[in-house]
Amino acid sequence: MPLSDLIAFRYLFSKKSTHAINLISGISVIGFGVGAFAIIIVLSTMNGFEHLVSQMVNNFDAELKISHKEKKVFKLNSNQMEKMNLLKDVEVWSSVLEDKAVVMYNGRQEVVQVKGIQQNALEIRGFDSSIIAGGLDLQQDSVNLALFGSGVANSLGISVNSGFRSVEFFVPKRTKTYRSINPMNNLNYLQLWTGGIFQIHPEIDDSYVLCGLSKARKLFGYKNAISSVEVMVSDKKQLHKVKNALKEIFGSQFWVETQKEQNRSLYKIFKSEKWISFSILTFILLIAGFNLIGNLSMLVFEKKHDLAVLKSLGMGDRSIQLIFLKEGFLVSLLGGIGGLSLGLLLLLAHQYFGLLKLEGAVVDYYPVKIIPRDILIVLLSNLALGFLLSIYPSINAPKNASF
Q1: Is residue 148 within 8 Å of 203, Cβ to Cβ?
Q2: Is residue 264 a contact partner of residue 120, using CB atoms and an 8 Å limit?
Q3: Residue 290: in which H helix or E strand, if any?
Q4: Which one-letter DSSP state was computed for residue 22?
Q5: How far apart are CA 279 and CA 321, in angstroms?
Q6: Quick check: 3 and 319 in contact, CB under 8 A?
Q7: What are the tens digits of pLDDT across the range 280-300?
Q8: What percent of the chain has pLDDT over 90?
Q9: CA distances (Å), origin 48, targets 214, 254, 348
């Protein structure tokens, strides 16, 4: 072990002549520990919420979505359908027609995003886990049903248990020449019944209504046109392989997007919130860590006779400076490891026993997710701050060496 390491280690754990130095050393270690504890707890909680929302959004969005870059709607040709059917890693693909409509229910009305989709596509992607009332079916016998986002249902007062369940949809006809003075004759009309209510994310819940593809085509006045194709793959490891194959099938005029690409803004919000929180907590840790400067400065003053002896024995200024740099490094390392260990134990206990309940949400307890990269980042941040805060007192250490 290098001499500077040995001396730094001894200075950290040996009893000082001045009790205040021992106290400040302990406070420095605790300060770095509390900072590491708080940061890993906050980051893991935000990871948990991101993972939860991602899972819920992924139940709504297909693993791959194909849409035209310029046109609102397009038609699939037989060649494209045949080639998609031949892709062995494609579990199911579904045509989708999506557009805005006015929905009326019991005297209330809202502008919503109506999404026409095939039943099997909802079943395969596990959309039933997002249903909070009613069922997943888009049709029962001869009755045509719709699934409403919880926000839309609340705005309109829709309930699957109410006796009055018929919901009316209106869309202006696409023809520009209106031949009737009655405005209702210039609208496409569709009547559906409430089949279920789903809850995913406020942006989706407050705007979306799902119905069968044929009913969406009737409402929007299209025979065969669609707005997108949604694809589910059988093996997620082959996702990018399937994506590249679909790009070849549809050509450069079409977007082929993964779930993350479909929800770019959502993922950007999560990442920016996470790293803003990390920056704020790191800044607080920096302020709390300033007592390390005082701790090392007092230690330098107390050990000035030892430093003078070391200099007389031939130890250079650089080696003396390294002693106190390593002292600060050890303080931040001990605090970081201690705080991280305690934080990780608490997070693991919460994962297994559910220590903190979350009221009025889709999950009973605060979601947490531990990512090894975050542990490394927190520890490295602690060490970097410890090193930076140790520079000033370590530079002055050789100047204070005296008998």
Answers
A1: no
A2: no
A3: none
A4: H
A5: 29
A6: yes
A7: 988 888 887 788 887 777 777
A8: 48
A9: 38, 34, 13
Average pLDDT over residues 370-374: 94
The span from the CA of 147 to the CA of 209, in Å, is 6
Q: What angle do CA 126, 111, 186 make, to 5 degrees?
A: 115
The tokens 């531990």 sit on which residue? Answer: 370
Closest to 321 in 3D by CA, of 265, 272, 370, 390: 390
CA–CA dist 105, 194 (Å, integer): 10
Predicted confidence (pLDDT) per residue in 100-109, tens digit: 999 999 889 9
Show the tokens assigned to 333.
Answer: 């390392």
C-alpha 3 chain-centroid distance: 47
348 — alpha (psi -120 to 50), left (phi > 0) or beta?
Answer: alpha
CA dist., res. 211 & res. 192, Å (int): 8
For the record, the structure tokens of 97 come out as 């027609």
**Region label for 43, one of left (φ > 0), alpha (ψ between -120 and 50) or beta (otherwise):** alpha
In the chain, the amino acid numbered 167 is: V
Task: Provide the 3-class DSSP secondary structure of residue 232.
Answer: strand
- Torsion of Cα atoms, 306 then 312 then 313 then 319, to 10°: 70
Task: Report pTM.
Answer: 0.78
252, two tokens: 């450069």
CA atoms of 159 and 162, how far apart (whole Å): 5
- DSSP string for 131-192: EEEE-S-SEETTEEEEEEEHHHHHHHT--TTSS--EEEEEEE-S-S----SSGGGGEEEEEE
CA pair distance 328, 383, nearest whole angstrom: 9
Comparing CA positions, the residue from 191, 155, 170 lying closest to residue 101 is 170
How far, in Å, CA of 147 to CA of 359, rounded? Answer: 25
First to last CA, the chain: 27
Q: Specify which residues 68 forms β-bridges with.
A: 254
Rounded to whole angstroms, the Cα distance separating 194 from 164 reads 10
Range in 11-25, 27-41, 107-121 the model is least confident about:
11-25
